[in-house]
Amino acid sequence: MNANLLNQYFDSARQAPLAISYQEIEQLVELKGNIGGNSSTGFGLNSIIILSVAVLSALGWYVMSPGATEQEFTQVPAVEQQTALAENEPEKPNENAIVPVEQVGEDDKTKKKKEVKKPHAPKTIHKLRAKKVKTSLAVQKQVMKTKVKKPAWWPHSEGSKAIEVKEFPILEAALDTVKKENRDKIDGQSKTLVRELSTEDIEWLVLNHANGNIEVVTWDNPSIELTSVITVEARDEEDEQLALEDFNLELKKEKNNAVVENNWDKYNSTNCSCLSYKTKIKTDKGERIKVKKVLIDYTVKVPKDLNLSLKNSYGNITIPDYSGEVKARLFQGDIATGELTGKLTLSEKYGSAKISGFREGEVYLFQGRADLGKSESLDLTTKYSKVNMISTGNMELSAFQSKLNCTEGVRGLKGKASYTQVVIGEAADTVDLSMFQSSISAKQMDYLDLSSSYSQTNVQEVKYMNISKAFQGKFSLGKVGTIRGSAQYSKFEIEEVGNAIDLDMFQGKLDVDYISSSFSKVDVDGKYTTVSLQVDPEAKYAFDAETSYSSLHLPSKDFEVKYRSRVNQSLDLKALYNGALADGNSSIRIKSFQGNISLK
To answer: What angle, 0 to 180 degrees and rounded to 10, lies between the N-to-C axes of helices 3-15 and 22-32?
Structure first.
């Protein structure tokens, strides 16, 4: 190509706008004319010229772009892209704004403002999406709400103001769990199988079952007779007949156990009601049958001293008076027994238990009801349940959101209770209980040891009471022999004290209606506490008080002051009442800080 021609076109390119489109290049070429003759190559001279002009234009745009162009294409900060506020809406402060800060400690005339630029720190908002968990229908129907009123930071003079104990509700909807009932709905054919096994060298009968009842019957024969009634509902009568022909039952000996097995155990899970829906069963002959529902009832005849290990889901268990050991585990089923002279181990979920009586037992309840009769020893764990019993000897208790009612008495009770009501109708020899937002009531106790928070105690008569810990509790007591312990934000209402009071209290209230003339000692150490004591007028005792910022009210007569010292708001007082001796058998000592003491 001629060099003059190239220079000519380069000069034309320099005169062109910095940004030029393809159509504008074509118009420019048509205006200036074509260069040379036709090219022999497929690419063509016109294409070369167009590419050259485009490259030069782009290069010139990058190198020679003016400031106005730079401002036009500079990215606008995110702060300036905000939508303008309404005219009547106050403008929000800009995070990048220059904030004037006054110098501290300079003269007003020499104060200068410094410009402090706040560093730009974009705010990141994290939104947490809580995964929704499906709750059971029973819990959805009744939502539990428990509120505990917290005491104020600065203590009140009346400790009772901080006390608010609320009963924690029982999940009634959960207790009324609807059990699966196939018996009234199944419509099919049945057959009966009978198996028998000698009890020689047999100690236990082991039967794991689901979707049916277990009935235990005692007899005098040295053998086990098992009767099974199976009912099948299928697509048609032919399939029902095939299923019944396939079902087989075996009662066999394994070591010292008699074990019940059937060839449908793999379909009939004890954890779910699998056969209550359409299930395909493969017979021993290879046939596949679609079974809708299956119900299997067992009746077992055994010697009454043979030990029983029974497990049942979606079915009931009945046992008559029995002398052997009984282990029973139920899920959505009920159990009823007569008198059990052997040990009872019971686990009941979503069902009810009615036991006439037993000698020794371990009982676990979850969302159930139980009537346990009389027992000599009981280890009870209960959650969301109601328990009634007549009496028991020694009981270990672990209760959560439950109700326990013993109509007669307990020889010994030990354990813990949360959100639980414990009622002892008559007497309890010894009670050692830890309570959280719970209540206990009884007519009479010999010994009571309590650790309680947000709880109530109601006892008509207690000989000795020890409070290892009390926080925001309420104590309503009738006749008390001796009471000792420490309490915070708690209220004591006592009708009568016969022997002694020894309490360390913080922001509480102690009100005793009557202290007998034969009492031995009253010792109260209180802060922000109100104490009111009514002593028998015939009593003789030595009185010792140390108070600070407190009010003290004493009887107007028969009080002989031996020592009195007041410094500022502190008082030290020693006195004798009714001519008592200084080293006599009865004494009252009060130590108070910012309290109210009344002795009548």
So the answer is: 130
Phi-psi region of 175 (alpha: psi -120 to 50; beta: other; left: phi over 0): alpha
CB atoms within 10 A of CB 534: 15
Q: What 8-state DSSP symbol labels residue 518?
A: T
H helix or E strand, kind and range, residue 452: strand 439-453
pTM (predicted TM-score): 0.68
Nearest to 258 by CA among 294, 297, 296, 222: 222
Q: Where are the beta strands (DSSP E) in 37-131?
A: 98-102, 113-117
pLDDT score recorded for residue 142: 43
**For residues 505 and 523, is the Cβ–Cβ distance under 8 A?**
no
Q: Give bridge partners of residue 190 from the DSSP assignment.
A: 231
Q: Give the C-alpha separation, 428 to 267, whole Å.
A: 50
At which residue do the structure tokens 């079952």 appear?
209
What letter represents residue 20's amino acid?
A: I
Bridge partners (DSSP) of residue 231 are: 190, 295
Residues whose CB is less than 8 angstroms from the CB of residue 548 and which lie 6 or more positions away in sequence, other chains included = 569, 570, 571, 592, 593, 594
Residue 595, helix vs strand vs coil: coil
Across 515-538, average pLDDT: 93
